[in-house]
Amino acid sequence: xxxxxxxxxxxxxxxxxxxxxxxxxxxxxxxxxxxxxxxxxxxxxxxxxxxxxxxxxxxxxxxxxxxxxxxxxxxxxxxxxxxxxxxxxxxxxxxxxxxxxxxxxxxxxxxxxxxxxxxxxxxxxxxxxxxxxxxxxxxxxxxxxxxxxxxxxxxxxxxxxxxxxxxxxxxxxxxxxxxxxxxxxxxxxxxxxxxxxxxxxxxxxxxxxxxxxxxxxxxx
Length: 220
Fold this sequence. Notes:
By secondary structure, the protein is α/β, with parallel strands linked by helices. It has two domains: 3-124, Response regulator (Rossmann fold); 138-215, Winged helix-like DNA-binding domain superfamily/Winged helix DNA-binding domain (Arc Repressor Mutant, subunit A, Orthogonal Bundle), CATH 1.10.10.10. The chain has eleven helices and six strands. It has helices spanning 12-23, 37-47, 63-73, 88-96, 109-120, 128-136, 150-156, 159-169, 174-181, 185-199, 204-215, and strands at 3-8, 28-34, 51-54, 78-83, 101-104, 125-126. The chain has a six-stranded parallel beta sheet with strand order 2-1-3-4-5-6, sandwiched between helices. The longest helix is centred in the C-terminal third of the chain and has 15 residues, at 185-199.
């Protein structure tokens, strides 16, 4: 089964370049293109794509508003932001709008293809620069989530669990996390289960997004 993709970007040169690349992938189907957020919402409803590559700064309706509407109307569709903006003021609202990942347009083509495939499986995808920036930018005054402040959430996890959840935020699988931390994959699974229980979340995708939005609090 091919991954059905809707490409959204208001720059024709970018649109044509990415379109050509997507058509070259044997497991991708470029279902359609849109040049603004309003058109993206309409085509998402019509085409029911698996993945939407969403630009942010567009006329008529921006990518964040479009993402919110699409997620409300088509919760199974996964949105992968593809933009040139790398600042937190764009990243966090984009992820809060329902996007499963955030990639920059300077990403290598092969990395973009792998991000699309991984997002299709439900894994959070963050460009390495974005993941590093979010982890580095401390904000202990993040608004409460599930009745807890960012600091309280952070303190409820063990140091190892914080390591695991931040690696989840980078889109790593249990196997990749195990390799990174030099522990058994079974141990990682145990940590993930504990994290989900403590944070009252249902799956690893929610945990990864939770980390991006809440747990990027610098160590004291």
